[in-house]
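seq:
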Amino acid sequence: MALRALRCVITSALVALVAAAAPARALAQEPPAEQPDPGQMAEPGAPIEVVPIEYFPEGMLVEVTFPDTPSGFKEETLLYVPIAALSQGPRPALVVFHQFGKTHFDLTQNTTFLAECRARGWFCVAPLGATKKNFASLESQANVELVLGCTQSIFGPWLDRRRIYGVGFSMGAGDLSTYAARHLDPWKPIFAGVCMHTGNHDKTYVWQTEPGTREVLEFWFGGTPSEEPFAYRQASTVAIAFPSGMLMAGDHQARNLAHTANYSYYAFQDPFTALKTATVRLYQYLSNFAVVNAGGVNTSDLSALPTAHTWASLDATATCDWLATQQLTLPSSGRLVADRKAQYWWFGLTPQAAEQFAVLDFTLDRAARSVSITGTTALASAELPYHLVGFAAGPLTVTTSSADGSADQFVLTGLLAAPAAVTLQGQPAVAGTDYTYDAGSGRLVLLASGLAQVWTVDV
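struct:
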């Protein structure tokens, strides 16, 4: 179903619900029918459902069901709208990722984050992510992307896109870290800050250390880690050696979180040693380059609690206080690890082949009109939407180089006219050999050789 149609349906439903003030379902109750594992299949063409859960003086909580999704799995989510605070201007949003075996009602049953959002005038979104046991599967991430995209589309004027935050526990922390690292499109929702409470950030390590999860993991990823290594890495942010528990060398997807405010947290008494190890390893990896990287350990005696592996070991108020200090700023330089064709910050990246990570370093200076894509490996092309970036007037300098010797393509899109001139290493570039321009699509393609090259494009 088109996003515009989704927007109309949900907007109409929310308006009708507010006007009618229909009776609400009990807050702590699970949905009437539990979501079976691995998940209910989507019903093509089925209408979206919006059910009121609870009305508050300051806002309303609804459950939104998407029977028809691109992933093929039905999606359910809780959405809190801070109605009273909308007059104050754009409001932050907190996205809560549930733990293993729970639904989106984990938000109301096991956390106090809804109360925090009510008190602060924040939106709150708690997606199911396709199923109770999703382990950051691509299907679950597609459903979360649908939920957040619809939230932005409907509440755009009231949603502060610079302050979208995430918090997740256990499996949900792994879901959050992976989703945040793989979704960096500036024209879609991006997390400004994330709190990852005792997460499973390496799905291969989960398979190795938690035998009870193997059936579910193999369902989502198509086999064992040895049979489908890329699928497991794609759903992970770091790679941890087994049995040593040490961080493996190389670039991991967590590299993409360098410009996200990260907070890694666990309880000292938590019995899940492997999850604590993964939490520490992610924190250690991010410490090498993250702009904001915080860590915390709850050393309190949790013996009075039913279990030490619990949302309750995290202080929700302190977490939201920390998140509230974070704000999204688009980076001007960094390193990216791309697992698929997608928009990463300023650049649309395409790896050379399926099941392959492309890696590159980038810089972008709009005032100086310069951009670089260097040290690339396994990269087919990088596209920059020239018309959307907002460069100052004048010629654009582009620097390219490849670490693996491959001939990459650098593409400028949105050029309404052919460039007046293109130079390569200070000499006139040859159309058809060094570059191409297509007037119909407005695409200028620089055919980089793989060597270190400097281009000048007079637009």
